[in-house]
Amino acid sequence: MPKTPDDPDASASPPTPPAGTDASAPLEEVKPAPDRSVAPVKKRRSGRETTRPSVFWPMAGIVVPLIGTFARFKVHGRENLPKTGAYIIAPNHYSEIDPLVVGSMIWRRGRAPRFLAKESLFAVPVVGWFLTKSGQVPVSRSHGGRGAPIAQAQHIVDDGSVVIVYPEGTLTRDPDLWPMRGKTGAARLALNYGIPVIPLAHWGTQQIMARYSKKISLFPRKTITFSIGEPVDLDEFRGKPLTASVLAEATERIMQGVTRELEKLRGEKGPAERWDPAAHAQSETGRFEG
User: Fold this and answer.
1) Is the pLDDT of residue 38 over 70?
2) How do 222-228 and 197-203 pair as beta strands?
3) Who's near 211: CB < 8 A, 6+ residues apart?
4) What are phi and psi for residue 74, nearest 5 degrees?
5) Taking the CA of residue 161 as centre, how many other CA atoms within 13 Å lie in the half-sphere pointing to its CB?
6) CA nearest 222: which of 14, 68, 40?
């Protein structure tokens, strides 16, 4: 695959590696605190996931270089992103192209990203095939059981993969694009399986595509800056029954981690009170005006 201009890790795009070589030495795996209440997580063999042939290659071969033509990435805290093992990436969310941007950055770090995706997308021809074959996790809002995505994510943990979970559940309603009140999906996954949650913030995507905008600004080329934090400390919640209060506390801990990383990028403090859509008569999902 052609290198992405100005990206220090463009070699993480998926070219075919020489036989018998390892593209990079893996970092030490982030291990969760011992907890007998969760099943042990299998370890992946070392080596960059992006150098092993997979269904990701055709898509990454198009998306990663394409994004590189209109966006350059600056990544801080890259040492906090393990090269092996299962974990959750929890990013902020304020533009509809965030998944492409975050997924491209994760690919450049040598990992193949998985997402929690709307179940309806899996019924779309071609798109559904790719989502299934690439290990994405279907989420049904009408399923009626909150544990459904958790059970469906088991293979991600078993394979030692990375899953990207937007803890806000949708684009932030905060008028200044700060992370709003979180939902419990990321906390449920982390506490059920004993895997780390790594907070991630990015800033600059709104210059390419603003929240709910139909317009895309490709030129001049924009800079998107990332800040990757250390794993969120959830040890005090592990092994406890997953009550509403436990999940709420763990979720807020995750949101605090994401907000801290965004504060570093924006050079300012986030609001003292997190935006709550219900308190402002806003719907929890879908588009809104504001």
Assistant:
1) no
2) antiparallel
3) 94, 95, 96, 171, 172, 177
4) -125, 125
5) 21
6) 68
